[in-house]
């Protein structure tokens, strides 16, 4: 490969910046996919990449995903994402966060950062000492801000209910069997709400203690991580990793619905067709999991209160409905329909 332009995931990204700070040891990448709709917003991830090229691919894909997610959520924000290339322990120091904050500040607001994998509200506070262009900061009672996770969960829960209605004709999750992959922040919020509605829950996490704790709290059944996607459930909800839906796993699915909050669930675009051809209803990930960025956006732009956030998240099911309707009308898979809608919104049809 000769240049960045040859990366298959390069999609006319407006800017890809490599950041190194010798003193703190920071190595990071900031990718801005599109500012067509507004400043590029998306979290910063701390990850250990075996090869630098993997970090580039991640930043390219994730930033494009944020363009799609923000546009579909009708937020006045473009898409961007940053990755901090960490050691195997994914350690980060206050100096590294400060250097990252300065890099964000230098972009003058074209990129707005927030939490992603490996980053906490506390880290955002450290970054905010060096830049104004950050959200996901602590909020006091009644203010918009803080951890986006619970807001993502709420949107995923609403999306799961919409899918249950569409595919199974059920107005509630009562009595339905929900198989949840992951027992973290998003999965936890979904499991609590679904349990309250009377769903039967099976869940799995590679962190066995985490799975046990959540299961005990919501009265769920713990299953093996390599089985959870393939249970004979009513709904499978991936809320852990990306790229879990590929040719092999899709052929083994036994549930009529896949709806969950994990980012980048489809390994390749062809997997959108595969899932469609099996007659499984799929909720495009960046549409159903937009609750967190809706909260971040409202905090950053100061254009609403908590009830506005709620009301914006409650539009997620309607968006899924439109995608599923168009999928039926055109015979195209739901993920491709969503991508087309998003690309039209960012002027890249
Ligand atoms: P989290 O770190 O709180 O939880 C993820 C959980 O998945 C962890 O407990 C981890 O042990 C588990 N896990 C990892 N690999 C697994 C596997 N193979 N099988 C089963 N469990 C596994 O993260 P989160 O914030 O809940 O995010 C979950 C997913 O949702 C991620 O894909 C994330 O990108 C996506 N997402 C999160 C938000 C948010 O606001 N937190 C927003 C949008 C999308």
Characterization of the model:
The structure is a single chain. This protein is of the alpha/beta class. It folds into two domains: 4-128, Rossmann fold, CATH 3.40.50.10860; 149-289 and 317-345, 3-Layer(aba) Sandwich (Rossmann fold). It is 43% helix and 15% strand. Strands 1, 2, 3, 4, 5 and 6 form a six-stranded mixed beta sheet that branches. 51% of the residues are buried.
CATH class of the largest domain: Alpha Beta
Q: How many domains, as an integer?
A: 2
Percent range for β-strand residues: 5-15%
Overall pLDDT level: 96
Describe the main β-sheet briefly.
6 strands, mixed
Distance between the termini: 27 Å
Give the number of helices.
Answer: 13
Give me the Rg, rounded. Answer: 19 Å
